[in-house]
Design brief:
Radius of gyration: 21 Å
Function: May be involved in the formation or repair of [Fe-S] clusters present in iron-sulfur proteins.
Order of helices and strands: HHHHHHEEHEEHEEEEEEEEEE
CATH superfamily of the largest domain: Rieske [2Fe-2S] iron-sulphur domain
Protein name: Iron-sulfur cluster-binding protein, Rieske family protein, putative
Strand content: 25-35%
Distance between the termini: 21 Å
GO molecular function, one term: 2 iron, 2 sulfur cluster binding
Structural class: alpha+beta
Oligomer: single chain
Helix content: 25-40%
Number of strands: 14
Pfam families: NifU (PF01106)
Keywords: 2Fe-2S, Iron, Iron-sulfur, Metal-binding
CATH architecture of the largest domain: 3-layer Sandwich
Number of helices: 8
């Protein structure tokens, strides 16, 4: 693989990435503190305290947002583009974009990964319901029929939709054919991943992918797993570093157009279309841009080993 790409383990941790990770997990820390409250009375008081503080900051944030956007309307887009700011605006119901726009933008971010499976997804509608909104999606192509990564496909979509629209409680998949629609509760999208207690899926920021030039292939160690990543145009594609035909590593592989050729058995794989060849298929790794940083999803054992 390209020697210009620095292995992940040798790269110092980026301070900004640490800050983003800290704020991204702030909700979990707050919930843990609430859980630690001894007894129902103490928990009720702790929850009330959190609500009072949240409402106070929300009221101040609303005034600041109104003043800023009145003075410079373009700031609304700047705030919406910042994931941390946007998440706070969502908490307080102040996000400048309606739910349809937010979900459509979120699906645009996962579209390159869906495209690598030969498929696409489109938002049809968002329907208000008593227990939360329902997002109606339609899939096209073959992205629903890749058993090796069905769980991570669901994870990529649910992660994007729920982050952009927390008011969504379920996702309705509408078939292109005249078949009954299937309603999927948003939280149960992860059931297949969590049904095996030994495995779970985690997202890992890998900013080093930005070091790949168009047409370049690189190897990265992420959470104990070796991942082969490449860049085609402006899009990144990642697969587990194992040839599906001969089982060898892709070290030294060359990308020609969108075909990656194994340096050992010479089998060519289409990296844009799910890593397919005439006789085998690579195991894809989802790649999403989160906070402007390339992020990979890996299924790991409880001990942290790779897939």
């Amino acid at each position: 693989m390209a020697p210009a790409v620095t292995p992940l383990a040798d790269v110092p941790v980026d301070t900004q990435s640490d800050d983003e990770a800290r704020w991204r997990t702030a909700g979990e820390r707050i919930e843990s503190l609430l859980d630690a409250a001894a007894g129902p009375t103490a928990r009720a008081r702790a929850e009330q305290l959190v609500r009072e503080v949240t409402d106070l900051y929300g009221a101040a944030l609303e005034r600041m947002l109104r003043a800023a956007v009145t003075a410079a309307p373009e700031l609304a887009e700047t705030f919406a583009a910042d994931d941390l700011v946007a998440s706070l605006l969502l908490v307080h119901g102040l996000h400048p974009h309606p739910v349809h726009r937010r979900i459509a933008d979120a699906l645009d971010r996962v579209r390159p990964y869906l495209g690598s499976h030969g498929g696409d997804v489109r938002l049809l509608d968002v329907v208000p319901e008593a227990d939360g909104a329902v997002a109606r999606l339609r899939f096209s192509g073959s992205c629903k029929s890749c058993p090796s990564s069905a769980a991570t496909l669901e994870l990529a979509i649910s992660d994007a939709v729920l982050a952009a629209a927390p008011e969504v409680s379920s996702i309705e998949v509408v078939n292109a054919e005249p078949e009954p629609a299937a309603v999927i509760p948003a939280q149960s999208l992860l059931a297949r991943v969590h049904s095996d207690g030994r495995r779970h899926v985690e997202w890992h920021a890998v900013p080093e992918l930005d070091g790949l030039s168009p047409g370049q292939v690189g190897g990265f160690r992420v959470d104990g797993a070796t991942v082969m990543a490449c860049r085609v145009g402006d899009d990144y594609f990642a697969y587990h570093d194992r040839c599906a035909w001969c089982g060898s590593t892709f070290a030294g592989a060359v990308l020609t157009g969108q075909v990656l050729r194994c340096p050992h058995c010479a089998t060519g794989f289409d990296v844009v279309h799910a890593g397919l060849s005439d006789s085998a298929q690579l195991e894809p790794v989802p790649v999403l841009m989160r906070d402007g940083v390339p992020t990979l999803a890996l299924r790991s054992t409880s001990g942290g080993a790779g897939p």
